[in-house]
Amino acid sequence: MIRLQNIQRRYISDSVETTALADIDLDVEAGEFLAIMGPSGCGKSTLLNTLGTVDRPTSGHYWFAGQDLARRDEAALARFRAETLGFVFQSFNLIDELTIQENIELGLTYRKDAPGDRRERVAAAMDRVGVSHRARHFPHQLSGGQQQRAAIARAIIGEPKLILADEPTGNLDSENGAQVMDILTSLNAEGATIVMVTHSPAHADMARRRIDMLDGRIVSSVARAI
Ligand SMILES: Nc1ncnc2c1ncn2[C@@H]1O[C@H](COP(=O)(O)OP(=O)(O)O)[C@@H](O)[C@H]1O
Ligand SMILES: [Mg+2]
Q1: Ligand 1 test: best mutation among 7, 8, 9, 11, most atoms within 8 Å of CB?
Q2: Model-level pTM?
């Protein structure tokens, strides 16, 4: 599904050049669950954002289902993201002024569903992640675990082919982290492709493959025997 070829990403600020990604070659098969590990600053988020097309490589190719996204304009990439991707972040990124239900419905913004269908889909998504009883609450009224589960509902309600999660359990205690991992594992079992950055070796072990990064490079790739 995905092929990154010789991806480089350099940042230049105040005439200091930082190489965030160097010589990245990575294939991700449809249906994979890939974990990315490595020390802080090694380029994990840059790699994930590159996969999400919210960060553009300085050079290299990004093939998704046979198309080179590195050559697409911003409008085409915005459409690609809306139709294909679901993002989950460490800090949940829910909108404070919207209820949980409204936040989740945002995941359907660029979809052409009838309003009735939308309500049903929002209800089903809330049910799936166990936040139905908090539908009309605002994010600050929920625990971190509930907020992250709502954020996952927002990410998956449009049935994305690829879920990109950047330290999704990083702000959660172990019990809430385990609940989030259960949801991600079952989404993967149902066919979603998942790429997840994590600092937790236990959570990385729940993925089918793990890559380790150092200084902008992939230094190892290990598939789990299933
Ligand atoms: N917008 C930016 N401007 C300049 N440097 C950046 C920017 N974003 C990230 N970097 C640098 O790129 C490197 C990789 O960052 P990042 O991908 O966030 O690492 P990680 O997620 O593994 O902690 C770091 O050295 C970081 O300081
Ligand atoms: Mg990061």
Answers
A1: 11
A2: 0.95
